[in-house]
Write a structure and sequence with these properties.
Elements: H1 2-19, H2 38-47, H3 50-56, E1 59-61, E2 64-65, E3 76-80, H4 109-115, H5 118-134, E4 139-141, H6 164-179, E5 184-185, E6 203-205, H7 208-215, H8 217-224, E7 230-232, E8 237-238, E9 241-242, H9 247-257, E10 263-265, H10 274-279, H11 306-313, H12 320-336, H13 350-363, E11 365-369, E12 382-386, H14 411-419, E13 424-428, E14 440-441, H15 447-452, E15 457-458, H16 466-478, E16 481-487, H17 518-528, E17 532-537, E18 553-558, H18 564-572, H19 594-597, E19 606-608, H20 617-622, E20 640-650, E21 653-662, E22 668-678, E23 689-698, E24 703-711, E25 717-718, E26 725-726, E27 731-739, E28 742-750
Parallel strand pairs: 3-4, 4-5, 6-8, 6-19, 7-10, 12-13, 12-16, 16-17, 17-18
Antiparallel strand pairs: 1-2, 2-3, 8-9, 11-18, 14-15, 20-21, 21-24, 22-23, 22-27, 25-26, 27-28
Bound molecules: beta-D-glucopyranose.
C-alpha cells in the first residue's frame, strides 16, 4: 500500500518535472544524489515508450548513449581513460581541435601494477575520477584488467599483470577510488581478450577452469570487492559465442554467480547479434555506427535499436528483457549522479602531477645493476644521453588510451632538470623510428580500421642507422657517463592509421626483438664507455641476450606518464630508491611463453589456450623453465632481510606474519610476496600462486612486522571436472619471498 502510494507520488512528481523544462537533474525524481531508488526506476520505465527504452540502451554519438529528453533523462557520457581522461570527440569520432581537454597523463596500467602498492591503485582511481568529473563524464572506460597472456599483445601496457591476484588487487583500488568521485568505472574487456590480432572475431578456446582461475578472478573482484557499476564486454568470442553477449559469461557468471547489478557496456562495435544481445546480458550497445559512415551515423541500425524493436514486435523476444537493461542503466545514472549533480572535480592540479610522479617513482623497475647506479653527479662533468625515446612524447598515442597531456617531461628534460648546470648534458638520437613499406604484412583484421585505410604491420625494423650510431658513439666516447633511453614506442610516424604498431591498440608485436637497430647501438655504447646505463620503455620486455650481458645497469620504465622523465632521472641519480617489481615474467623470447610454446598465439580464426592455467610464472616455475627476470623481481639500492615467519590458522583464515629489516645503507621499500603451494594436488596445479602481498617502506636499519591474511579462497582451485571451486584437504606450503623465484621463508598449514 505504502509502495503504491509512493509510486503514485513519484509519478506525479515526474510528470510535474516533465511539464517543466527538462534538465539534467530532473529525472532523479527526488532520490538523493548517488542513491538508488528502484521505485523511481520502476516509475520511469512505466513512462517510457519502447523507442525511448531502445534509445537509452544504444549509442547516440561516439561517446554518449541516448537519454530521454521528455522525461528529463540525460545522455550518459563516456570517456576513454585508463591512464588519463581522453581528448574530446564531440559527437563524432575525431579529436576536436580546440577543446579544453588537456589532462593529467598517469603512468600506464602496467607501471601502476609494478608499484605493487594498493594505496596507489586507489589514489590513481581518485585522480581519474576527479578529472573525469571535471570534464562532465559519467563513465570512465577503465581499468584494463585483461591478463597478460603473451608479451606480444599490443595492449599489454594498458593491462596490469600476468597474475590474476595482482591484477585484482590493483584493479579493485582503482575502481573504488574512481567511483567514490561519482564516476562509474568500466573495467574491460570481459573476458579472455588477450590479443589484438583479429580482435573483432577471434574465438578464444578456453577451458572453464582457466576462465575461473586465470581470466575471471580480476573481474569478479572488481565486481564483488570493488563494486564496479559497469563492465565492458570484449570483442572476441569465447568458445564459439561473442563475449559481449555470452550467455555463460554474462547471465550465468557475472549477473548470476557474482550478483552484478550494473551495466554491461559493449566494446565499440562488439555487438554482433540482436537476439543474443537482448537475451544474454548486453545492456548498452556502443560504437557500431563507427563501422559505417562516420558523418551520417545511422543509430537506428544498431543491433539493439530498430532490429530489436522488430523482434519484440514480432513477439520473438519479450520487452521485459529491454526493461531489465533500462533498469540497469537508470541504476547506474542514479549511482553516478548523472541525473543530479556531479559536483566539480578538479583537473591538472599540481596534486595530480605529483601523484603521477609518485606512481612513476614506484613503478620503474631496476633489473640489473653491478654497482654503476646510482650515478653520482658530482663525479660527472659530461653526460651523454642517447636514444630517441629520451625525447619522445608518448601520451597522445597507442589507441583509445591516448591522452592530451598538459605536459610531458621527457627523460632528457628530467635528467637536465636534475643535474642542473653542474653537468654538461649532450644528446644524440642514436636511432630513429622508421617505417618501411616493403616490410609490411597484414595482421590486424580490424574491421573498423580496415574500412578506413588498408592497415598493415611493420614486420621488421632492426637495422641501425650508421650515421646516427657514429654520432652517438662519438659523444659517448668523450663523456664521463652514458644514459641510453630506448625500447618500444606506441607507433610509427607515417603509419596510415596514426596509431602505429608495437604498443598500440589493434596491433600485436611480431616478436620481442629490439627495434630500429638498438641492439647494435647499445653494444657500441657499452664498448666505448663502461659507465653506460640502459633505460628501456615499453609495455613488455625485449630480447636481451645480445646486449644485456655487457650492460652494467638496466632500468625498465614502461610508459611512466607526464612526470616519467623526472622519475627516471631521480632513480638513475639515487634521489629515489627503486622499488618497482615486475608484474609479468621477462623471459628470453616470446617463444618461451606458454601461450606460444604450448598454446597458440595469435591463432587463426580460433586461438586455443592449451597452456590452460599455466600462464606466466605459473608455467615457468612449475616446469622449471629459464627466464631472464622472474615475476615479482626488482632491485633496490638497499638490502632487506626476512625472518620470524609465523603462521596462525584461525577459523577459515591463515595469518602470515614475518619480520622484514632494511639491512642496507639507505631507506627503501620491499614487497613481501606470499605464494601458496599445494604439496600433493590431485589435479595439475601451478607450483605456486600469488595470494597476498604488502609493500613496506623502511628507513635504514628499521624493521617491521608484516601481517597478511589469507582466507580459504587463497587455497582453492576450480575443479576441472565438477566445475566448482573446491578446497582440497591436505598440506599447503606458504612461501614468502621477493619474487616467484626468490622465496625467503616457508612454512606449512593443513586444511
Ligand atoms: C577499445 C576500448 C575502448 C573503445 C572506445 C575500443 O576499440 O577496445 O578499449 O574503450 O574502443 O574508444
Amino acid at each position: 500500500m505504502r509502495n503504491s502510494l509512493f509510486i503514485f507520488i513519484v509519478l506525479a512528481v515526474t510528470v510535474l518535472f516533465i511539464s517543466c523544462q527538462p534538465g539534467r537533474d530532473q529525472a532523479n525524481g527526488g532520490a538523493a544524489p548517488g542513491e538508488v531508488s528502484e521505485e523511481i526506476i520502476d516509475s520511469l520505465i512505466d513512462l517510457m515508450t519502447l523507442d525511448e527504452k531502445l534509445g537509452l540502451i544504444t549509442a547516440s554519438s561516439s561517446f554518449t548513449s541516448g537519454g530521454v529528453p521528455r522525461l528529463g533523462i540525460p545522455e550518459l557520457v563516456f570517456s576513454d581513460g585508463p591512464h588519463g581522461v581522453r581528448h574530446e570527440h564531440g559527437r563524432g569520432w575525431y579529436a576536436l581541435e580546440d577543446a579544453d581537454d588537456e589532462a593529467t597523463y598517469l603512468p600506464v596500467g602496467i607501471c601502476l601494477a609494478s608499484t605493487w602498492n594498493k594505496d596507489l591503485g586507489y589514489r590513481y582511481g581518485e585522480v581519474l575520477g576527479n578529472e573525469a568529473k571535471e570534464r562532465g563524464k559519467d563513465v570512465l572506460l577503465g581499468p584494463g584488467i585483461n591478463i597478460i597472456r603473451s608479451p606480444l599483445n599490443g595492449r599489454n601496457f594498458e593491462y596490469l599483470s600476468e597474475d590474476p591476484y595482482l591484477t585484482a588487487m590493483m584493479g579493485v583500488g582503482y575502481v573504488k577510488g574512481l567511483q567514490e568521485q561519482g564516476v562509474a568505472a568500466c573495467p574491460k574487456h570481459y573476458a579472455a581478450n588477450n590479443q589484438e590480432t583479429d580482435r573483432h572475431n577471434i574465438d578464444a578456446i578456453v577451458s572453464k577452469r582457466a576462465l575461473h582461475e586465470i581470466y575471471f578472478p580480476a573481474f569478479r573482484s572488481v565486481v564483488q570487492d570493488g563494486g564496479a557499476w559497469s563492465i565492458m564486454g570484449a570483442y572476441n568470442k569465447i568458445n564459439g559465442q561473442y563475449a559481449t553477449h555470452h550467455e555463460y559469461l554474462n547471465n550465468v557468471v557475472l549477473k548470476g554467480k557474482w550478483g552484478f547489478d550494473g551495466v554491461v557496456v559493449s566494446d565499440w562495435g562488439s555487438v554482433k547479434d540482436t537476439r543474443e544481445a537482448l537475451l544474454y546480458g548486453t545492456d548498452i550497445e556502443m560504437g557500431t555506427e563507427l563501422l559505417r559512415d562516420f558523418d551520417n551515423p545511422e543509430y537506428d541500425e544498431f543491433y539493439m535499436a530498430r532490429p530489436a524493436k522488430e523482434m519484440i514486435e514480432r513477439g520473438e523476444v519479450d520487452e521485459s528483457y529491454v526493461d531489465e537493461k533500462v533498469r540497469r542503466v537508470l541504476r547506474l545514472m542514479q549511482r553516478t549522479t548523472a541525473m543530479s549533480d556531479h559536483g566539480q572535480g578538479k583537473r591538472n592540479v599540481e596534486e595530480h602531477q605529483q601523484f603521477a610522479l609518485e606512481v612513476a617513482r614506484e613503478g620503474i623497475v631496476l633489473l640489473k645493476n653491478d654497482g654503476l647506479l646510482p650515478l653520482d653527479k658530482s663525479e660527472i662533468k659530461t653526460l651523454a644521453v642517447v636514444g630517441h625515446n629520451a625525447t619522445r612524447h608518448f601520451a597522445g598515442r597507442g589507441g583509445s588510451s591516448q591522452v592530451r597531456a598538459l605536459y610531458e617531461i621527457t627523460p632528457l628534460e628530467g635528467i637536465r632538470n636534475l643535474v642542473g648546470d653542474d653537468v654538461e648534458v649532450l644528446y644524440a638520437e642514436g636511432y630513429e623510428p622508421y617505417y618501411d613499406e616493403s616490410l609490411f604484412r597484414d595482421v590486424t583484421g580490424d574491421a573498423a580500421s580496415q574500412s578506413t585505410e588498408n592497415i598493415r604491420e611493420v614486420e621488421l625494423a632492426r637495422t641501425a642507422n650508421q650515421a646516427l650510431v657514429q654520432e652517438a658513439v662519438a659523444l659517448a666516447e668523450t663523456a664521463d657517463a652514458v644514459i641510453f633511453v630506448g625500447g618500444w614506442i606506441h607507433g610509427h610516424e607515417g603509419m596510415p592509421w596514426g596509431e602505429g604498431t608495437y604498443d598500440a591498440e589493434a596491433r600485436d608485436k611480431l616478436n620481442l626483438k629490439l627495434i630500429f637497430g638498438q641492439e647494435e647501438l647499445i653494444r657500441e655504447l657499452n664498448r666505448v664507455n663502461d659507465q653506460t646505463a640502459i633505460v628501456l620503455m615499453g609495455g613488455s620486455n625485449v630480447e636481451m641476450e645480445n646486449w644485456l650481458p655487457e650492460s652494467r645497469a638496466y632500468l625498465h620504465a614502461w610508459y611512466p606518464g607526464m612526470e616519467g622523465g623526472t622519475a627516471i632521472a631521480e632513480v638513475l641519480f639515487g634521489e629515489v630508491n627503486p622499488s618497482g617489481k615486475l608484474p609479468m615474467t621477462f623471459a628470453n623470447s616470446h617463444e618461451d611463453y606458454p601461450s606460444h610454446s604450448i598454446g597458440e598465439f595469435p591463432g587463426d580464426g580460433t586461438v586455443e589456450y592449451r597452456e590452460e592455467i599455466f600462464v606466466g610464472y605459473r608455467y615457468f616455475d612449475t616446469y622449471d623453465r629459464p627466464v631472464k627476470f622472474p615475476f615479482g623481481f626488482g632491485l633496490s639500492y638497499t638490502t632487506f632481510a626476512f625472518s620470524d615467519l609465523e603462521l596462525t590458522k584461525q577459523n577459515n583464515k591463515v595469518i602470515v606474519e614475518c619480520t622484514v629489516t632494511n639491512t642496507g645503507a639507505r631507506e627503501g621499500a620491499v614487497v613481501v610476496q606470499v605464494y601458496v603451494h599445494q604439496k600433493e594436488p590431485t589435479f595439475d596445479r601451478p607450483i605456486r600462486e600469488l595470494k597476498g602481498f604488502e609493500k613496506v617502506h623502511l628507513a635504514r636499519g628499521a624493521s617491521a612486522t608484516v601481517s597478511i591474511e589469507l582466507d580459504e579462497s587463497a587455497f582453492k582451485q576450480f575443479h576441472p571436472e565438477e566445475l566448482r571451486w573446491m578446497l582440497e584437504p591436505g598440506s599447503y606450503e606458504i612461501q614468502v619471498g621477493t619474487s616467484s623465484r626468490d622465496i625467503k621463508l616457508a612454512g606449512s598449514v593443513d586444511w
